[in-house]
Design a protein that fits this description.
There is one protein chain. By secondary structure, the protein is mainly alpha-helical. It has one domain. Helix 5 crosses helix 15. The chain is globular, with a radius of gyration of 20 Å.
């Protein structure tokens, strides 16, 4: 049944998504659960099959999966404007919080305080937890574990942003060779997405065009805002596996080049765990540290723009693409490499700059246990990390 787009329906999308943006803690998997409860179970904006298809598409694409699902739901409810409003509502609360945190950090020099070190230890626990969950789902067999191992070794030996891209591309090719004959048991009817193929083609062309043009433009102009936009856009375009995987890409874009210190970087990553909404809003923090609130907004737009272009660009073509065994095989290889990249990031820079003493390790073990075994919400872990870091700094 076609949904008539009205001001009331657009306002409803904005209000509902904003409430989710204020309350959705727990990372992308938890976000999908919140979306299902609010959009599917309560409001019946989509049927179960269409939602499952949309989630499958967003898992296939690079970028922030939960944000893309939210955008897709908004698009299917009220067209492209609905998608934009759903994105704004879900993302803005954490963007504002992280920009304020960055400005305070910059103004008062909190980097050396004990509670900041506690947040860095929180980052160790959170990323280790993410790796466990992803490894279980994405590397269930020996072939994919071997791909992950190769990604770990290459990423640690050659620590450049280009290595990340090369590892993902090679893993996709290896996955294509190993799993191209795998059969897909899928007899379901395809979902109908309200996006024309013409608009989809325009968005995909723009996505790839910016990926090529922005680095050239940054090199030619040497303008800081162009360089920043290029770095965030590229990071948002090349991340498979969600917000945790953007960490190594952003770290290698901004820390070695001197845009911000490793302490500032990891403090912001810890703070990002304390706010609801998508982890990609970590970019707002980095942008604000570098260029104030304007830099935060620029970074947010740049890192989420690929997600917009990809979700709108691929919706019309997804049903046929997801049934292609060769494409699915390549994706299996890419996902295994993502696990390896995360393991490398856990060691460097997160572990090496956070776990400095046996006390740090013991405290990290407690935080990890609280998250994994006691299953406490992330905000409790963050609060415990900040308080514990402050207390430990007194001794």
């Amino acid at each position: 049944m076609e949904q008539k787009i009205t001001f009331k329906s657009l306002l409803e999308i904005l209000l509902v998504s904003t409430r989710l943006g204020l309350t959705s803690f727990g990372g992308p998997i938890a976000h999908l659960g919140y979306f299902h409860e609010e959009y599917i179970s309560r409001r019946k904006w989509m049927d179960e099959k269409s939602y499952a298809d949309l989630v499958a598409l967003c898992q296939f694409l690079p970028g922030p999966a939960s944000s893309q699902v939210g955008i897709g739901i908004g698009v299917m409810r009220a067209g492209v404007i609905g998608g934009i409003l759903a994105f704004i509502g879900f993302t803005l609360p954490s963007v504002v919080a992280l920009i304020i945190f960055a400005l305070l950090l910059h103004s008062f020099g909190f980097e050396d305080l004990g509670w900041i070190h506690g947040l860095k230890i929180v980052a160790v626990a959170v990323v280790a937890h993410a790796i466990l969950g992803m490894a279980k789902n994405l590397t269930p067999d020996l072939k994919r574990r071997t791909i992950a191992l190769g990604a770990v070794v290459l990423t640690l030996l050659w620590q450049t942003a280009l290595t990340q891209v090369a590892v993902i591309l090679v893993a996709g090719f290896v996955g294509f060779l190993l799993y191209r004959q795998q059969t897909i048991d899928d007899h379901s009817a395809g979902a109908k997405f309200p996006i024309s193929r013409r608009l989809g083609f325009i968005c995909l062309s723009l996505f790839f065009g910016l990926l090529i043009v922005l680095p050239i433009l940054a090199e030619a102009t040497k303008l800081n805002w162009v360089i920043l936009f290029d770095s965030f856009y590229r990071s948002g375009s090349l991340v498979f596996g969600g917000g945790h995987v953007v960490l190594p890409l952003l770290e290698r874009e901004f820390v070695p080049t001197g845009w911000l210190s490793e302490e500032q970087f990891l403090a912001g990553y810890g703070a990002t765990q304390a706010v609801p909404g998508p982890l990609f809003t970590f970019a707002a923090y980095i942008g604000a540290v570098i260029g104030g609130w304007k830099g935060g907004l620029l970074a947010t737009i740049a890192i989420f723009l690929p997600a917009f272009l990809l979700i709108i660009g691929t919706l019309p073509f997804w049903d046929g693409l997801r049934r292609n065994t060769k494409v699915k095989g390549a994706l299996m290889g890419v996902n295994a490499a993502v696990v390896g990249i995360l393991i490398a990031a856990l060691y460097y820079p997160i572990w090496t700059s956070s776990i400095l003493t046996t006390t740090d390790f013991a405290f990290g073990a407690i935080l990890f246990s609280m998250l994994v075994f006691w299953k406490l919400p992330p905000w409790v872990i963050v609060l415990t990390g900040a308080i514990g870091g402050f207390v430990l700094s007194l001794f």
